[in-house]
Amino acid sequence: MAPGTGPHPATRNPSTIRHHLWLTRIPLFLQFGRTEVIDNTLNPDFVRKFILDYFFEEKQNLRFDLYDVDSKSPDLSKHDFLGQAFCTLGEIVGSSGSRLEKPLTGIPGKKCGTLILSAEELGNCRDVTTMQFCANKLDKKDFFGKSDPFMVFYRSNEDGTFTICHKTEVVKNTLNPMWQAFSIPVRALCNGDYDRTIKVEVYDWDRDGSHDFIGEFTTSYRELARGQSQFNVYEVVNPKKKMKKKKYVNSGTVSHVIFLWDLLLMDSNPSQSTSLHYMNPYQLNAYAMALKAVGEIIQDYDSDKMFPALGFGAKIPPDGHVSHEFPLNGNPDNPSCSGIEGILEAYHKSLKTVQLYGPTNFAPVVNHVARYATAEQDGSQYFVLLIITDGVISDMAQTKEAIVSAAKLPMSIIIVGVGQAEFDAMVELDGDDIRISSRGKIAERDIVQFVPFRDYIDRTGNHVLSMARLAKDVLAEIPDQFISYMKGRGIKPNPAPPPYTPTGHTLQTQI
């Protein structure tokens, strides 16, 4: 939830006002959190967010207190009280666009201003990204110097508004600043939606809080993920200057100079024993065990025992580009492997040639199989996609859309989660309780089955028993999913073959 405030009257000199907002729960009035302090403004826009668990069936009372901070003391009595507002979390969530305005009260006979509260359901993306930016030839705003530039990042909301999500530090007296690298959760930037608009504004800092607007640009997380390149150089444009000056080009440029993925680092090096991909010479790792458990059963229903095997989320030689559907055997023209042993062999070889990387995108492999299933809708073939994952998923929205589309096709998806990560996203994809939907469309049928591998590890270390239990549960829904597709398309089984009739002479023996 992101609190912010609108204008409110004050009798103090604006240059002396420093705002700080406290968020508390009632009726116990336990302090839940505090925003940062914003200096010298009557219209603070707070960056710090509060993450609350929302329960539809409960009344969750909240109280917001606003103070003018006069010192570094944490004691509230040392600061000037500016007003408070009461509401429930349900009021915020249920308001239009999940944006609620509440008048600040608490000082008799005085209008204290307005508090603006907004809420957004957090996506399941748990990635953290590290970025760094520099600028070139920004506009000069200071009369006796150059500029003191800083950047402000805004996440776009579903109702078209923007919410502040990050501010850089101020770099003094330069038109070519290099800001420090910063780390930020991806869901704070775009709530896990890689194509959601991110707006960036550039300002010249002023001591009295009246920062001068230099210009702005928009981008998306998908564009930022390209890293340092000519595609990540953005023109900083001041719309007012552009309207007034015919020859106006821009107010400078901003470049993205660093982009790092902070994923599950334990998986980054398969040669280390902490990696889920660690190749122990005496024991299969979790990925291999899951593949063997499911594959050895389902392969009996495939006539030629040739299985396309794809990897995702790795840098591929020779140029090191990131791929989300690369062939484990290294052959893009024919990614099929002979039997489960052939897949395991290709998997072990690929770990020696590719570099595990991010992001982790499911949609490409789902769409890859869907292309084959699209061409075989007469009932002659049925496709089963097995995804083995550590639980991190970066393209939740795209994956949902791909699964909803695939639900019309002759295919099922099995997801096995390995490792100790949270699998909330995988549970959401499994439509047992709530049928998965995307863009207002509900999947025609449930085609996803998810199980966490850790739930099947036998305490005695009997891996054969663990694999048998896993295979039983993960394959349990496939027959019904298969039949639901055939019935939905009116496809009936082929007629039974005539009974066997022996040919030639019959030898009769009498005893």
Automatic annotation (TrEMBL):
PANTHER family for the chain: COPINE, COPINE-5
Keyword rRNA processing: no
SUPFAM superfamilies: C2 domain (Calcium/lipid-binding domain, CaLB), vWA-like
Database matches in InterPro entries: C2_dom (IPR000008), C2_domain_sf (IPR035892), C2B_Copine (IPR037768), Copine (IPR045052), Copine_C (IPR010734), VWF_A (IPR002035), vWFA_dom_sf (IPR036465)
UniProt protein name: Copine 5
A GO CC term attached to the entry: plasma membrane
Family classification: Belongs to the copine family.
One Pfam family cited in the UniProt record for this chain: C2
GO molecular function: calcium-dependent phospholipid binding; metal ion binding
Gene3D superfamilies (alphabetical): C2 domain
GO BP annotation list: cellular response to calcium ion
Keyword terms of this UniProt record: Calcium, Metal-binding, Repeat
UniProt keyword annotation of Metal-binding present: yes
